[in-house]
């Protein structure tokens, strides 16, 4: 039984076949399977059918291979049918050429807002793999060019034999909550580069030798000058920009004297649950919500609905 997917880019329906894709003979059989399908990306943007309900456009693997010499990645099995992804390069939109009439390429953030959950999850996985391969073409141990292996899930250095695997960067993303006033409030922050009015959860990368809870406390202290007293996990989200795992948290803080650091955040604002509900509904007079496909939106919704640090027996 599949686990529930609370966030966009989660809930990939494919069997990744991680125990079989290491076998070159088995992988060759999947590539030769006439039922093999492939999604197509152009510079990280998936090809989406122009239908009333947007969805990924699928080509036969043979057709997709004819479009690109750059190679494909194996995504997994769908009811025993192999599924791949192929990336096209160049500056000219292939939708006006080799894939004309099959759909339009949409950048991944736009695609996330359009696609069904399973399609977004598969597309996000493909983008992360292509991004990783593009950044790791040379061995970090000896500097020689590396080769793709295991259907794109590994790179192997032919010179020194070092194996390289896709990296995922963990990020804590959290809503600080203060309960010492007349009613509970949560803190939202704003980066200067965001659209006017946009505010969101606080976030930051984990550092070596640091737990999730410690990273949460450090980031809130650095960005808003607050002290964390308790942390509760809510959910996580694969984030293919380029390959992060967002770890969603609610963090209780000891006071409400928040001060933006003016480096990561230019402004902060405390909101009550009612005010946060207005933010999500788009009726708040000043604050605009994080986009629905972002885990920050999920966290804010969960807090509005009563998810709290202090209640340990609530369902996530």
Automatic annotation (TrEMBL):
Keywords: Hydrolase, Magnesium, Metal-binding, NAD
Signal peptide: none
Cofactor section: Mg(2+); Zn(2+)
PROSITE patterns in UniProt: NUDIX (PS51462), NUDIX_BOX (PS00893)
Keyword Hydrolase: yes
Nudix hydrolase domain residues: 166-294
Recorded catalytic activity of this chain's protein: a 5'-end NAD(+)-phospho-ribonucleoside in mRNA + H2O = a 5'-end phospho-adenosine-phospho-ribonucleoside in mRNA + beta-nicotinamide D-ribonucleotide + 2 H(+)
Top-rank taxon, per record: Bacteria
Molecular-function GO terms, alphabetical: hydrolase activity
This enzyme's EC code(s): 3.6.1.22
Annotated segments matching region Disordered: 1-21
UniProt similarity note: Belongs to the Nudix hydrolase family. NudC subfamily.
Protein's UniProt name: NAD(+) diphosphatase
Organism: Brevundimonas vitisensis
Lineage: Bacteria, Pseudomonadati, Pseudomonadota, Alphaproteobacteria, Caulobacterales
Gene: nudC
């Amino acid at each position: 039984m599949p686990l529930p997917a609370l966030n966009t880019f989660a809930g990939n329906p494919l069997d990744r076949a991680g125990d079989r894709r290491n076998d070159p003979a088995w992988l060759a059989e999947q590539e030769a399977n006439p039922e093999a399908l492939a999604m197509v990306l152009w510079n990280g943007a998936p090809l989406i059918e122009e239908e009333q309900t947007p969805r990924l456009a699928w080509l036969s693997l043979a057709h997709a291979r004819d479009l690109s010499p750059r190679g494909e990645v194996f995504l997994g099995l769908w009811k025993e049918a192999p599924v791949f992804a192929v990336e096209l390069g160049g500056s000219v939109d292939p939708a006006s050429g080799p894939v004309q009439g099959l759909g339009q390429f949409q950048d991944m953030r736009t695609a996330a807002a359009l696609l069904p959950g399973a399609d977004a999850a598969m597309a996000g996985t493909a983008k992360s793999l292509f991004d990783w391969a593009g950044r790791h073409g040379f061995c970090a141990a000896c500097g020689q060019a590396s080769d793709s292996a295991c259907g794109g899930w590994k790179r192997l250095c032919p010179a020194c034999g070092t194996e390289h695997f896709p990296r995922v960067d963990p990020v804590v993303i959290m809503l600080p909550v203060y309960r010492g006033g007349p009613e509970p409030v949560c803190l939202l922050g704003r980066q200067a580069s965001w659209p006017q009015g946009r505010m969101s959860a606080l976030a930051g990368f984990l550092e070596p030798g640091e737990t999730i809870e410690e990273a949460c406390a450090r980031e809130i202290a650095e960005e808003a000058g607050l002290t964390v007293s308790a942390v509760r996990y809510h959910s996580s989200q694969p984030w293919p920009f380029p390959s992060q795992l967002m770890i969603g948290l609610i963090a209780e803080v000891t006071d409400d004297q928040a001060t933006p650091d003016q480096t990561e955040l230019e402004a902060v604002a405390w909101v009550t649950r009612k005010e946060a509900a207005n933010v999500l509904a788009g009726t708040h007079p000043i604050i605009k919500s994080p986009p629905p496909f972002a885990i920050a939106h999920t966290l804010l919704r969960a807090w509005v609905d009563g998810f709290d640090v202090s209640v340990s027996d609530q369902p996530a």
